[in-house]
Design brief:
This protein is an alpha+beta fold. Helices cover 41% and strands 19% of the residues. The strands form 2 sheets. Strands 1-2-3-4-5 form a 5-stranded antiparallel sheet, covered by helices on one side. Strands 6-7-8 form a 3-stranded antiparallel sheet, covered by helices on one side.
Amino acid sequence: MGLSYATVNKFYRENFSPRPMVLQEAKRCTWVEHLKAQLQRIEGIDCSPPRYERWQNGAMLGFWVVESCAQYCSYHDSYFRLVIDQADQVFITGSEMTAPVGSEAEVVAFARACGDRVQRRHAQQHKREKVKHLKAQAMTAQIKQLANAEQFDFYIESSAAKLKLVIRLSAHDHVHIVIPFKRFQDAMPKLGEAIRAVQEQYASGIRLQVKSGQTAAINWIEHQRVHTY
């Protein structure tokens, strides 16, 4: 996802003057080229033009705040344009907002603030993924110990919040046990007993299926209303 509306609005307020600069036509090309050179040195900023999009009237330069790792910038990234109005005043537009540009330095400061925010987000995401990977390794080690003790074959799948333990019951059948990461340590002491129970029931010919979905149309027999004689 791109920078949030609140983040862009904050950076607009912090970096741009209330009055726009006036840029005469004779100085525009030099000003734009010098600014572009500075922007391209900022990590996370890409001055490539949008794909399949024409420049709007008055647009002088645009840049992406790149958050994705794709070859081309995408809708996941934030895009900003520097435009000039009929009075030769410079503005920046992006994220459905417009702000006056008082100087070249303001644009550079704004772009650097955006790039820094993206880099911090990437660092935080990398840290979360590293922690998750370490936790998954620790969980896998515990399950391997259990599998060796209980003698079952398995494989593991994981998502952002859950671990799926798939246990082979026969050459054709297997069972899935889904464990939320947050409850793994609580579930682990009971896991061996649960697996043995499933294996025993399977060996006796009983097949267990757990299904999720709407059950409103089912005519349930409620245990509170069951009478025994």
